[in-house]
Specification:
The structure is a single chain. It is built from five helices and nine strands. It is an alpha+beta fold. It has one domain. The strands form two sheets. Strands 6-5-4-3-8-9 form a six-stranded antiparallel beta sheet. It has a three-stranded antiparallel beta sheet with strand order 1-2-7, covered by helices on one side.
């Protein structure tokens, strides 16, 4: 019994595959405020796609450190079965983008812009990292997501961008 528990614990500690890669990031002046444009590749696992198809919203959280401040921005990915559309929405924004297929939703995630709440003339470098927020999953899915980490793991390595 003890060896089985140890094996289970070690399996949970192994490094699961990353299904997200940030290729580039840079700041852009978006009107009066600075935005971070992130070029990335997000690959949803089949379990994540199934969850979306069954009405489970997924939250992609971006941890951003710049100008001596740490902030988090997020996108919500949803499926609206009555509209037969997948939705992408920046947390806190009213605009919702609709997509007919999940592949189109994933393609839209290749290039995203995140508000930094900094003046447009701020010239700071920083780093950004994206991950699937497992705490945002419905409670019954959190426990299975912990034990099936290879299916629910979506996290990038931190990516640093230079000051502009």
């Amino acid at each position: 019994m003890l060896p089985a528990l140890l094996l289970l614990a070690l399996a949970g500690c192994s490094t699961p595959p990353r299904h997200a890669t940030i290729h580039a990031a840079h700041t852009l002046a978006g009107g009066a405020e600075l935005e971070l444009e992130v070029l990335q590749q997000i690959q949803l696992s089949s379990v994540m796609r199934d969850a979306l198809d069954h009405g489970i919203a997924l939250r992609l959280a971006y941890r951003i450190e710049t100008c001596g401040q740490r902030r988090e921005r997020a996108f919500w990915l949803r499926h609206a079965p009555l509209k037969r559309q997948y939705e992408l929405q920046l947390e806190g924004a009213t605009e919702v983008r609709d997509f007919a297929r999940v592949a189109a939703l994933e393609a839209a995630l290749d290039r995203v812009r995140l508000p930094l709440d900094l003046p447009a003339d701020a010239a700071c470098g920083g780093n950004v990292q994206v991950r699937l927020d497992l705490a945002a999953l419905p409670t019954p899915l959190r426990f299975p997501a912990f034990f099936a980490a290879e299916q629910w793991q979506l996290a990038s390595a931190p990516f640093a961008w230079p000051a502009s």
